[in-house]
Amino acid sequence: MKFNESNTVEAFVIKELSGHVFSTTAVLNEPGMTYGKPWQYIVPQDLKRGVNEVLLEDKLFQALQRLNPAIAINPAFADEVIYKLRAILLSVGQIGLVRANQAFHKWMCGDESMPFGENNQHIPIQLIDFENIENNEYIITNQLRVHARETKIPDIVLYINGIPVVVGELKTPIRPSISWLDGANEIVEVYENAIPSLFVPNILNFATEGKTFGYGGIRTPLQFWGPWRMDLDQDSVTKYLGINDVAVEINDLLKPERLLDILRNFSLFSTNKKKQLIKILPRFQQYEGANKIVERVIEGSIKKGLIWHFQGSGKSFLMVYAAQKLRNTVALKSPTVLILVDRTDLDTQISGTFNAADIANVVTTDSIGELQTLLERDTRKIIVSMIHKFRDAKPNMNVRDNIIVLVDEAHRTQEGDLGRQMRASLPNAFLFGLTGTPVNRADKNTFWAFGSENDKGGYLSRYTFQDSIRDGATLPLHFEPRLVDVHLNKEMLDEAFEQLKSSVDLTDEDADLLNKKSARMAAFLKAPERVAKIVADIAKHFKEKVEPHGFKAMIVTPDRHACVQYKEELDNYFPTEASKVVISTTANDPKEFKDKWAVDKSQQEKIVDEFNKPDSPIKFIIVTAKLLTGFDAPILQTLYLDKSIKDVTLLQAICRTNRLYPNKHFGRIVDYFGVFDDAAKALQFDDKTMQSIVSNLNELKNKLPSLMENALSHFEGVERTIEGFEGLEIAQNAIRTDELKDAFAKDFKLLMNVWESLSPDRILDPYQTDYRWLSQVYASVKPSSDHTGKLLWMTLGAETTRLMHENISVGEVHNLDEFILDAEVIENIFNNPSPKEARKIEDILTKRFKKHSGDPKFRKLSERLEELRAKAEQGLITSIEFVKELCKLAKDTLQAEKELEESIKEKSPQAALTELFIELKTDKTPAVVERIVKDIDDIVRLVRFPGWQTTTAGEREVQKSLRTALLKYKLHKNEMLFQRAYEYIKEYY
């Protein structure tokens, strides 16, 4: 389907969800099969609401009566519920959006009660019917005007029973640089801050430009938004809908049953490492995997399933979602869900995830006796325990058939044939194995315990490395062979791998023992001159390639004593506090060694927490076996590897670096041992997709010349030695249209990613001058709005920025300040149109719009400039008309800057409050606004003190004073007035 101005993305989305076709978009009336649409389209003017209201209270009132017999008998009860919901909406300014969303979520899921029963007995209140979803009312509207801190107009809003549950932002499909990311950015950066009350009941948000699609929850950073690619039967989709992928994604994600499932079973409120409350929504592979588990249990005939989701793609949350939905499923009659982890203590990523997410009815136990007691007593909860406890399990511990076992890292169950012991002790239970690595066919125990012959390839759900890279769930992995002369020779390497076959999951002590078995190998690995050479290289590499980008590193050494050796050598290059050794000690270790290097559980936690903080002094963690699995540190970008590991252990270790983190484009493994001298041998898996997991950075070097050539091809015939504004103008003229700019941006982005990966390699030296020139051109033609072109027009990388600033050979936009822009200059250019002078105005305006990008007035002026450019490029106006319109825009910009300056000077606290009271004034507001404002001003000035906004006591006193002042005029019950006035007081006092 092609889009044009009369056939918009907005019309496309509304038609897909509601079937409504706008009269001006007759092209959308496609022949073919009709299909039922659950959403009813209503124009925003027909919705019974004020601009300050986000609920459709008439629809909500009707739903409360329809779904609650007690309210149907006494409709006045509905007003009491709506009052409670309004209070949550108003509280967003004080408690924050996520906490307010959590409070509203409880109401929407039917977890709150009111005293509406007999003898004032509390009964649960239903806002939504989850069992018979046709009892709910589904409304879609567009261009909904909402006023809170500012007035905003989201493109699409979906309501269930009068509650706004989805907000969508749509972008033009015309420009290659515009994508769903720009719409997502507008929701995250603008709407959620300007009109937060609209997002208090929110389930999810989406964005599309008609070609691609992304979704995310409230306060979700852009890098964690993603696509929705359900594993649907493609034939049936094509037959039923007959349109493109975006239509499939929109119809699948936004159908009522899907949204209600996400609301009830897949919305988590968790505490992050900074102790902040965050909302987590499932990626589609987590949603699909969890639902496949639930569906298999409900169906009941197949008692097992194997799930392979690649390392870093969210396996922990998949288990949480599955456990939560299993417990919520009425048909399963309150099942027991047993989560088995593979470590030697329960403080793992998964148990931590369950605890942080505050899931109900979770118990943890590290004792087989306690586990046995819980199962024998028929405990109906989520139980988290350790897999090796089943070595001591008795047969028939519980024969109930609604016990579901989820085993983390299932491939490890081969040890001691734990799968068979689990089956014997829980004969009728469902056993699901989850793994981040594919299971080799040689591992017959794992396939026996978990794999079903009914599943394709033996997997119930499969999400590969390539899938996770495609969807942005994880980052690519590069390896870099270093100091080849310190690699092990083939004979020693074969010996190392041979010894490793029986030691897949080594402890620190096992690693020591392994090296004792091979004194020859240990002597070579830990030779002081070899370690010194490697550490010197690590220090140089880290300072050049890792530290400038704000990332951190891990060093993996052959054994515990090597960890100490590396640490002592590293201290010659970095402060002592820059690196920490994380190893365990044994009773047989010398007291001196234990006193100095022992790290207990709480110390390890503290080190990991500090390592994850960008501003902490810890730059390196040095390990031999600890933290190679289950260690989640997104800031970790580079792994320095000097140890013999392979297959599952190697894959888990290198995937510590593939987690998403701002401005991180890949994970890097620097190989000193020679593990990747034969990458195929190091990663031996049956699954062919595993062969391309790690790519050699040398391959990027081979791509560099062609990428540079592609970027420069946009400027054929342009003289790159001309300096100053003139040189910049010639370059800009070569890519004058939006299409040409975007094509250049696409090629430059590919070049920049490779440059950032390789820098400061000497191979880049011959290209430095050209690359610096291209970087400056890219920066100069970037759109003025921060909300435009996030796909191609991104922030320059750290190395590119450093290079640009190192030696500015082309005059950048900031040099244009020397060109004074005032009314007289504008008038002269208006009367004597000159393209060259107009270009200077255009560049100055672009810079000023960026400076004021947060101001709605300047954002509109910026949009006017973009529209003007588009008209000129399409030939809709002449060059003289362009100059004259540009001059008018420049005049308006000067006026806006003048008004902004005056408002900053003039806006006293009293003036701000007066403005607010006039804005919110109703028939019931006393006429003497000045007197109310003066009373508030007097009383607040009396109780305030410097920094009161940052203390609980200060906020409490000011709120109390404001209530007192409003009480005098009988305005104390107006919660909206109170909230808005309090916000103004926080800002201006």
Task: Note down, in words, how this protein is organized.
- Helix content is 46%, strand content 11%.
- The chain is of the alpha/beta class and 989 residues long.
- The strands form 6 sheets. It has a 7-stranded parallel β-sheet, with helices on both faces. Strands 22-23-21-24-25-20-26 form a 7-stranded parallel β-sheet. Strands 1-4-7-8-9-10 form a 6-stranded mixed β-sheet, with helices on both faces.
- Helix 33 (835-851) packs antiparallel against helix 34 and helix 36 crosses helix 37 (929-943).
What is the gist of this entry?
The protein is an alpha/beta fold. It has 39 helices and 26 strands. A 7-stranded parallel β-sheet has the order 15-16-14-17-18-13-19, sandwiched between helices.
